[in-house]
Amino acid sequence: MWKKSKVTDQTAAGQKVDAPERGHPNDKGIRKKSKVPGVMITQFEAELPEGMTTPDFSRKPIAITIQEGKSTAFKAIVVGNPKPTVTWTRTNGEIVFHPDTCRQNYSEASHEHTLEFPKVAPEDADTYKCYATNDYGRAVCTAVLNVIEVGFSKAKELQKTYGDDIPDFLRKKLKKRAPKVGEQGQNEPTPEEKVWEILMNADKKDYERICAEYGITNFRGMLKKLKQMKQEQDVDTAEDGEMVAFTKEECDEIKHSLKQVGKKHDSVLYSMDVEGGIVFTADFKVPDVDFAIKLQEVKADERQDALFVCVLTAPLNEIKWFGKNALLSNGEKFEISVSEDKLIHKLIIRDCLPLDAGIYAAVAGIKSCNAWLVVEADKEASSKGKKAARKNTTAGLGDDEDLLRIAKEQQERYQKEMEERLEIAKKAQSERDAAEEAARLEAQAAKKRSAETKAAAKAAAKAKKAEEGVDESASFQVGAHVDVEELSEDNEEAGQNSLFMETVEVDKVTSGDSPPLQDKVKGNDHGEETAVKQKGERCGTNEKRPKVKTVDAEDAAVGNDLGEKTAKQKSEKSGKKEIPPKVKFPDEEAPAVGNHHGEETAEQSSEKSGTKENCPKEKIGDVKDTHVESDKGEEEEEQPPAGKRVRIRQGPLIEETIIDPGVHFLVGLSDCKAIIGEEAELVCKLSSEDCEGIWYKDGEEIKSNEGMTIIKEGSYHKLKLHKVPEEFSGKYKFEADGRKTEALVVVEDPPRFDPEELKTFITPITVKKGHKATFKLSYMGREPIKVQWFLEGEELSDEANIKLETSDGYTRLLLIKLQRKDSGEVKLKLKNEFGTAEALTELIVLDKPTPPMGPVEIVEASSSAIEIKWRPPKDCGGCKIGNYILERQQVGRNTWKKVGPIGPLAKYRDLDVDHGRRYCYRIRVETEMGTSELMETEDIQAGTKAYPGPPSTPRVVSAFKDCINLSWSAPANTGGTNILGYNLEKRKKGSNLWGQVNPPEEMIRAKGFAVKDVVEGMEYEFRVAAINNSGAGEFSTPSEFVFARDPKKPPGKAIDFKVTDSSYTSLCLSWIKPKEIKGVEDEAKGYFVEIRPAENTEWNRCNSNLVTTNFFTVKNMKSMAMYWVRVIAVNDGGEGEPQELNNYILAMPPPVRPRFTDTKIKSFMVVQAGNSARLTMNFEASPWPEVTWLKDDVPVSKKVTISNAEGTSQLLIPSSERSDSGVYTIVVKNIVGQETFSIEIRVTDEPKPPGPVEMEENVPGTVTISWAPSPDEKRDDRLHYMVMKRDSSKRTWNTVADHIFNNKFTACNIMPGREYRFRVYAKNDMGSSKPTESPKWLVPIKKEKFTVNMPRSKSCDLQCPPKFLVPLKMHTAPQGYECYMSCALKGDPTPHVTWLRDNISLNTNTNYYISNTCGVCSLLILRVGSKDTGEYKVVAENPMGRAECSTKLTVRE
Length: 1453
Hints:
Layout: E1 30-33, E2 40-43, E3 53-59, E4 64-67, E5 72-81, E6 85-90, E7 103-107, E8 112-117, E9 126-134, E10 137-148, H1 154-162, H2 168-171, H3 191-201, H4 207-214, H5 219-232, E11 242-247, E12 256-263, E13 267-274, E14 278-285, E15 291-293, E16 298-301, E17 305-312, E18 320-323, E19 326-327, E20 334-338, E21 344-349, E22 358-364, E23 367-376, H6 379-383, E24 394-395, H7 400-467, H8 485-493, E25 505-506, E26 529-532, E27 547-551, H9 561-573, E28 583-584, H10 602-609, E29 612-614, E30 617-621, E31 657-659, E32 665-667, E33 672-675, E34 680-686, E35 694-697, E36 700-702, E37 708-713, E38 716-721, E39 730-736, E40 739-748, E41 752-753, H11 755-761, E42 765-768, E43 773-780, E44 786-791, E45 794-795, E46 802-807, E47 810-815, E48 824-832, E49 835-846, E50 853-861, E51 866-871, E52 883-890, E53 897-901, E54 907-910, E55 918-927, E56 930-931, E57 935-936, E58 940-941, E59 955-959, E60 964-967, E61 981-988, E62 995-996, E63 1008-1011, E64 1019-1028, E65 1031-1035, E66 1042-1043, E67 1055-1062, E68 1067-1072, E69 1086-1093, ...
Parallel strand pairs: 4-10, 16-23, 17-24, 27-30, 33-40, 42-49, 77-84, 95-102
Antiparallel strand pairs: 1-2, 2-10, 3-5, 5-8, 6-9, 7-8, 9-10, 11-12, 12-13, 13-14, 15-17, 17-21, 18-19, 18-22, 20-21, 22-23, 25-28, 26-27, 29-31, 32-34, 34-38, 35-36, 35-39, 37-38, 39-40, 41-43, 43-47, 44-45, 44-48, 46-47, 48-49, 50-51, 51-54, 52-53, 52-55, 55-56, 55-57, 55-58, 59-60, 60-63, ...
């Protein structure tokens, strides 16, 4: 059965999963995933309150890779209610927040939380976590910050190698850092350092001036050191510090190392460290490669293999393959291969499943291409719930010959380009060599001249030392001490500049236990070693030879600590304690700066050559082209090649002792894993063929025996183990001449099969459907062994139809009642602690084949043959197809004719067919297992008939009362054969029946015909059809109707031709039918209208078809254009004479005097100040009038906007002011006349209230009210006042005066004893202002005694007998519905009411609901039935009398 691996929480691309997160106070809770990948949410409570949510990231921070020194930031947007709090942490250490290094911000505008790094440093590289926390949960996500370090730092490289314990001699090599600003005062640079700083930053043209200014005389020495200092600087940006191997010498000592320091899109930067000194960089470009053939889409069936192929334009060892954005590697699922010429690259996807569908891409350099893989699922297998059978075919296979041809063309083109580039490179190299040769010859001449001068100086120095009694030869004897400081003094006396002073250093020379003597003289910083070997010098010989070690002019140093230490170490290793003396003569041009680099010792060189030598070492300054004569002349100088430096030894040769290293191992033993029962071998190689050795196992010596054999073949020594048993495990050692090598032999016992039985097992097993199959195989190996059986990749277990048996060394699989779907690959898998073994075989279950696969392809369907082919069955049942059995049926018949077996080919050609007949076929597959179900084809026609197309529409040539002559043209489509004739049909007007004109057996041969079977005065139409070998084709479109009568005379002119209406684009015409004059002018059948622009001479017909009416509208005319118009009457006799208008016509409406169309136009308008004022006037006029607006008889100002359209004009004042008040007049004028209209616009505002109100009584019973005027009174001539009054006896205010244009009013009828109040309003056209209220006004009165005479009340008798005010009504109710009866009565005292049905009281019947409320008596029947039919009566009784009211209820079914 298939098992899916558990999917774990994944992180976003570019991020990594950290170790367990740090402790958090709210770690406990419910873990859930976010919709954003890579975000984990912890919910603290099981149920959240309504409206509350846990934190989440709507945008999470992404991984960043950035160069050192640049600024960057992580950005995140969080959501949640309540608002979450955001914090940041890092995996290694704590975040130090500082404005210059790291700061955390939040933007209110974008709602972004950021962690900013203003200047990224390498120590900032880490994995950062962002926490969003609120009261109900916490969300966390991670992001990685990768920092690309800039520059190659020696200090960093040494820190990586040695940690904090950097040796002193290496610490001295580190470059001095520039002092900080605060330290400059303490460590001021020396004048010499300032000079070099100036030279480093100066142009080359200024070097001479600077040297003259600072007194530098050795110009060549300055250039040499300046070049060295520039090389020490970092020359490129380092991004990736991964070390890569560069090259090795023969003695396996690494001389150079190559370091990858940067990557780009199309290149990689590398830095090269040469002997720990200078760092260079190189830019290795990616080859210029593209795709000659790109990937193509591949469609594969389920369980089929798929192949993607691409061809490159240049050879490439490998390209990258990606499947659904994931890098693919070579394995069981994906097979990646490349052709021998490295141009054709292939990707095979094994056993395609629907999950494998997607986009696959190939990447070569910076170029890429991609294509889809479409996997079609096996619907039959999926519907049965089984896995589809494995297919051995491959989808996407193309023509390999085309691929090889294209690859060959690309290879030839590539080789041609390489040859051209090589020719160019050779040409450039030859030019460079010529230039170098010329420079070398010039330098050699200069050196020769310099050498002569130096030789003379040294001869003088030697003569001076001889006079002082110094034995020069003793300086090179063992135990001698030489002090040659005088040499430097001589140089100083010679006038050399102190900055570039030549120095000589003689290292200490010791012998045995003699005390060392060390004389140190200043040298330079860097050392360069070059060994000059004398003639006859060879590795492994004992010939005494001197070894000369030279020091470059720039490489003299103070002391030689490292060289002496190394020499001592090597001397101890070689067994000699003697240290050879070292003499060093620096070059005269070498600057004296100091030497801290170690020199290569003679012992190191001896070990490289395979021998141990003990010889003196001389360190001689780099004297260019200097010829020094040897004092004793004991050795001959070896002539150097042309153009090379000459390194001349000074002093006598020192004998050198060569130590034989003895026998040693060239190849040692290697650990070996052996399988029980198989052979194993241990091999080692010695440096000598004559040496014998001894083999040991676990410390005990072993000899050749039955289980093992010891073999010696020259310098090779072998130990062969035969049929290895388990006890052969152990440690084996081989010892020879005191040297030994060891190896472990591990004996394993993995599961394995017997080869003979396995050969039988892998033979496929074939069984029939319903039978059983047995698979069995024995095995061997150490127990326990896990045994698994698989069928088509699905592991099998014991079931009803599956039996598994496993015993010691034997397993058996029994499959019962096999079906065809059980066919497939059977795999036996064994596994123990040592490995895994698999055995594969195949199970084939035979069954009846499935039907052939359609659809059937029709290869040929002619009049003489039908050829068809189809696809083989999807499953042939495991057998070869023997025959296809065919049956044929002619469409229209019920019988099937057996065609018989036709062989195994899936095609058939039927020659026994009739032209035009249709046939249907049944196809079955026959194998040795039986016959399949049938597949039936669709109807196939033998020789499809091609009928001709329709001829042209018949044309009436002439018409008479007894004959109509017609003609037509042949059809364009003849059906591939000749036209044999035509059929002609006619139809009377108003009839639906067509009648054939020619006899059916006699076709019309010509393309015309005279129809004589016509009735005079009748109207006919005709159609025609063409006939070929297939038969008659389609009929043509019918002809026009034609009368069977003699030809007519053309009609006369139209009468009363005139224009009825016109516009700018159209013209309406009308006329009267022309008169009919027998024998001269016949009746008109229709009309044509023609127009002619005044500037043209040709008439244009307005209607293509005849107009049968007496009016017509001409459209699409140009506005105000001039036209001539005419009408022509037409009948069967032809066209009559045209009738023209007497004058030309202008395309315009009829002239109309301007007139305003609005019936209700206001002549006065009030607008509040600040609002817009809009006037719209609709009018009609023709032609287009001129519209003018005036204000107070003056044109309106620019502030006013006028908009004119067809039939309307609008005036707009955007923001009105009081100054815009006035009379506005519109003037509409055209050639016919003009019309005006005036509107008064008053712009005003709500008035301000009047001032304080004062009151006085001048006349008793009246009061005079006066007030201060409103501030708007002077600006508004229509402002007036209104006075309102309210007395204490009323609650409402009453208007007592309005339209008061002064500031005083006298109110009358003022009653004493009442309190009065008055309000004064200012009013204008916009409304009224807020009121100004007067003080209270009261006229006191003398009170008199008030007497009230109450009238005597009379008693009233309201008793009365019952009386119905509203009687009962007749009711008819449907059965099952409710019924409601009611009536109203009065009576005093209240009468007693009784309801009766058919004189039976209902008051006690619970089926009726009776109520009596305020004299309204009601009866409710909830569900009316037939029993409720009858007479209902209401009886009301009281002591004063009795009353009755009755009605009838009818129940409707």
